[in-house]
Write a structure and sequence with these properties.
The protein has 2 domains: 111 residues, no CATH class; 102 residues, SH3 type barrels, CATH 2.30.30.100. 47% of the residues lie in helices and 18% in strands. The chain is built from 8 helices and 6 strands, in the order αααααααββββββα. Strands 1, 2, 3, 4, 5 and 6 form a 6-stranded antiparallel sheet that branches. β1 and β2 form a beta hairpin. α2 packs parallel to α6 and α3 crosses α6. It starts with a helix and ends in a 20-residue tail after the last helix.
Length: 250
Amino acid sequence: MPNTLTGLLLFAILLLPGFVFLTILRRDRPDRRPSVLQETASIASVSILSDMIALSGFAVLRAFAQNWTPDVGMLIRNPVDYSAEHSLLVFAWSSGVLVVACGVAALVGWLIGRRSAHPSVMSSWWMLFEHWQPDTTRHIECLLDDGTYIAGQLGDWNTLADDSPDRDLILAAPITYRPAGSTEHHPHPVSVVCISARRITAIFVSYVDPATSPEEGAEEEGVAAEEEATAPSEATPLASDPGSPPTAQP
């Protein structure tokens, strides 16, 4: 471990690609909480690999453009004097190598994140909201422990890999609400609602085509029910009814 402030700063900079890798990876995967040893090993291994790739690219450029790249030999033998004399060149190339290393780490994290996680590390929420039919609009119905019913479109949710009760679920408008003890559902004039997982006893999920919103579906169901109620019975078919048999002409 470094025992000076400069060494500690360089150590943190060299590990920066590993932090970038984990940040990108956790955006598209269940949020696992590994041990300190596992997380440190991941950061260190990705940082070393990314730094080696970036330095390999620098070595290739150094072989073809020696006048435009820092002299690594002189930098190692006399780092203070060489850095002071060629400060701009050293800073520019050091920053470029670091940016390339972080870019490599970000690309690796993005590629791994594109792959579906194994079901063994998924929470039930991740399975419902992300793993199954992720390209659809998820309409969520929640039943709370006191009998309250709340429904709406999936807004946001906690991506913890563990099914912990200490997490929240956010539903977006249109929100439907039914108080405990009531049998009628009422549209609630709010934009979003946050529900604690500790209060939820059941979650019902409908995967809806993005082109059809829950409001349109409800309107279509209401129109269909109204048409069914006002349609003539089969016992007295009308000539204009397309389902009635043709009437004989005299």
